[in-house]
Amino acid sequence: MPTSRSDSRGNPLVLPALEALAGPTLLVDVHQRVTAATPEAEDRLGPGAIVPGRPLAELLTLTEGPRALEALLSRGREVEATVRVGGKERTMRVRAVGLSQGNRRLGWAVLLGPEEGAREGAEEVFHGMWTRDAGMKRMFRIVEKVAHTESSVLVRGESGTGKELVANALHEISERRKGPFRAINCAALPPNLLESELFGHVRGAFTGAVRDSPGHFRLADGGTLFLDEVAELPLDLQAKLLRVLETRTIIPVGGRQPVPVNVRIVAATHRALRREVEAGRFRADLMYRLRVVPLFLPPLRERRGDILPLARRFLDELEQNGPRRVERFSPGARRLLESHSWAGNVRELRNVMEYAYVIGEGPVLQEADLPPEFSEPCAPPEAPLLATREEEEEAQEAAPAHDPATLRAALARAGGNRTQAAKLLGISRVTLWRRLRDTEAHQGT
């Protein structure tokens, strides 16, 4: 009996197009029997596994037992399933979407998620930070160790990577957790105001100082003070901060008497302090005081495996207070999210998901739901059809690979318009033309 991939009773583009939109999928009738499968679903489940009419319960073993099948089909809940391929068990998450015509139930589309073994590892939530990335987990273990000491910590990381969350974790794990946690961005205030905010001032110290102000150091007494963007401190304030670290006292602006403070400093910056020292913008003695234990937060672009799971978590949060329910990402949206540079890191990802949630409609998050910058190709600019062979080869090399089915599905979505199809795929028009030509040549051999 032929498999569903070669089924000639319907349009041969239907299953590849379905896969391009929803990923590997099984089609199941009202009697819970498999009727067809997309090409990748057949490959995932192994040779001979997809036989039209085979019961779904026989093909997928649901780890929660027989009742999980009802949860999967009737309630649409994501469940875990195992399949045996080549004598080895594979575990994956599966979801079902009901297919109806009017009030008549036709069956279900069962969507196969990524294999558990393909993930980078088990997920971990650590004081508000979520990851599967091994490097992030190693950083968590260092935080746990250093939190039980009084050592100064310098957190290095780009904007949006979670530097303040790390500072909070250091405080919450430490013996100072019963004390206050204060945070100040050293780049957000002019130098004269920043000094007053840090060390406080006395009444009459300057125009507008109508009463004494304690400042962040005294407000954080007995706890932790987080100095974000510490590299932006002017040199005169660096000298005063060094004195505080050495004497554990502060002198308020306009004051004369030192005031003792018991504060642990956690500093953060996106700059390399050693380079700032070499450039004469930062004091070497202060750097050594602050950089006793350096921690490095990797940017999101170096944690590609975390992008889609984090996006899903942000959508789950948005769904709690919003009307839309997003069941999945389209393949095009997945590709754009995973290939984006994420200059704003996790903070940018959260904002992008909020934009997509508000702008889009329906259960599938599409490419068009993403902000405008995602529709701008990040690969080399689109080349004209008269580009040189060298330019064409460079563009093709830089562009992501797509199989013939994905190319055809993009053309179908674009109504045959190659320029629009190339934009959907994130490649240039000439690259699409070359790949279609190569596909046709391959099929003709």
Give a verbal description of the structure.
The protein is α/β, with parallel strands linked by helices and 445 residues long. It is 40% helix and 18% strand. The chain has helices at 14-22, 39-45, 56-59, 67-73, 134-147, 163-173, 191-199, 215-219, 235-247, 273-278, 284-290, 304-319, 331-339, 345-359, 389-398, 404-413, 418-425, 429-444, and strands at 25-29, 34-37, 61-62, 79-85, 88-101, 104-115, 124-126, 129-131, 153-156, 181-185, 224-228, 249-250, 259-260, 264-269, 293-296, 328-329, 364-365. It starts with 13 loop residues before the first helix and ends with a helix. 31% of the residues are buried.
Key phrases:
Rossmann fold, Beta-Lactamase, 445 residues, 17 strands, elongated, 18% strand, disordered N terminus, alpha/beta, 4 domains, Helicase, Ruva Protein, domain 3, 18 helices, five-stranded parallel beta sheet
Q: In CATH terms, what is the architecture of the largest domain?
A: 3-Layer(aba) Sandwich
Strand residue percentage: 15-25%
Average pLDDT taken over every residue: 82
Helix and strand content put the structural class at alpha/beta
Q: What is the CATH topology classification name of the largest domain?
A: Rossmann fold
- How would you sum up the major sheet? 6 strands, antiparallel
| Shape verdict | elongated
Radius of gyration: 29 Å
Q: Give the class-level CATH name of the largest domain.
A: Alpha Beta
